[in-house]
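Holo model, flavin-adenine dinucleotide. Inputs:
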Amino acid sequence: MGSSDTAGTTLIVGACQAGVQLASIMRELGDTEPIVLIGEENHRPYQRPPLSKGWIKGELEPDDVILRTREWFADRGIQLVTGDRVVTIHRGADGAGTATTEGGRSIRFARLALTTGAAVRRLPLPGTDYRGVHYLRDADDAISLEAAMRDPATRRVVVVGGGFIGLETAAVARGLGKSVTVLEAAPRLVGRVVAEETSAFYLGAHRRRGTEVLLNARIARIVGDDSSVAGGKGAVSGVEMEDGTVVAADLVVIGIGIIPRVELADQLGLEVDGGIVVDEACRTSDGLTVAAGDCAVMPNPYPLGTGGRIRLESVNNAFEQAKVAAATLLGRDAVYSGVPWFWSDQADIKLQIAGLSTGYDSVVVRGDPETEKFSVLYYRSGRLIAADCINHPAEFMAIRHALGRGATIPPADAADTGIPVKRSIVEPAAAALV
Ligand SMILES: Cc1cc2nc3c(=O)[nH]c(=O)nc-3n(C[C@H](O)[C@H](O)[C@H](O)COP(=O)(O)OP(=O)(O)OC[C@H]3O[C@@H](n4cnc5c(N)ncnc54)[C@H](O)[C@@H]3O)c2cc1C
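Output:
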């Protein structure tokens, strides 16, 4: 296997949203030194969001989801390595070092970026190895899940976990005509991220579309056919609850969250605390390595946030952190600050979230959730800090930009759909008085 020993090389470990963006921005900022971008997956770098949407519905081809073509990398002199995993990294006090890979590569570098993302959280219960039990984090997961969805023998789908990925998957399965049950352990859907009002909307919306949703669901194990399959586990047949009832299934999809990939950071002795700890310039605790994306935990970048550290799992965050990390590696001053945003598509329902609702003390529902076009605005001490906009892109854009300027919307005006949201916005100087 090859050995790259070019002195000024930047090594970026993890070739997905954050890693590709980081390499791209380094070139945009004028860096001409070699860049090696390495990812363990056997695919060209791709976008994950379509996996739980168009991909498992069978609507997309690989070219629809790739982030950049091979030519794009070649044109910019970015050496893309796929299908190989960095297993050890040694670096000296000056920051330069050597990484070795599972495939036997040895890569010398002057600068190092970790964009290692996250791994899917496994359900710690018996039975997850039956045929027909799936997770959904990467392209290989999506390819096998799409095939299972397409199989006419797959009639009953059980989704474990009522977070965004679980609900997106449930919506696809239901749209394909399957009988679908969502099992959520908490008392409400997407409870970690949205207010009661948005959770209640999703519960109603999925039920209206024919999906069964069980809240406070206590799962004991996954059950299947143990009788006769030589050389492998039999097919899944259902999910057994703690009370002994079984929810029948031909396909079980588990979506219970992710765990940041910190193994290389641990090896390097970097501070890790629910992710690789970085400062607002995306610098890790050694002051030399940068980290960005799902793997990184950083000072809350949101000026209207509650402070402390936060780890965000979104494309927007991966992009913004990668921009800052690239600038930092090149010795430029850059600080991550902005209005985080996120989206989720479930059937014909588009949710767009602007801001971070952590620490809210009241909400205003703007519009009628029954119409499936409305917004939930989050307030802290009377000041707007975030919004969930359902099927309302114009409102989302207006609110996102308003939050970015430090503007607010008085709660009483927010509730009045007779006043366009743009006319309710109170700009920063005045907002301080509200
Ligand atoms: C199904 C799905 C749907 C989503 N939908 C949305 C959405 O609608 N909206 C939204 O905002 N976000 C969504 N997300 C989240 C979004 O995709 C992630 O936040 C984003 O991909 C994070 O990018 P990243 O580059 O930090 O990490 P990742 O995308 O996880 O990439 C990290 C890469 O590093 C590789 N790697 C790790 N360790 C090594 C190593 N030692 N050597 C080599 N390679 C390594 C991994 O294999 C992986 O390919 C979704 C995610 C999933 C899985």
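The pocket of flavin-adenine dinucleotide is lined by residues 13-14, 16-19, 38-41, 48-49, 51-52, 85-86, 115-118, 136-137, 165, 261, 264, 293-294, 313-316, 318, 342-344 (CB under 6 Å). The chain is about 25% helix and 25% strand.
Archived with the compound record.
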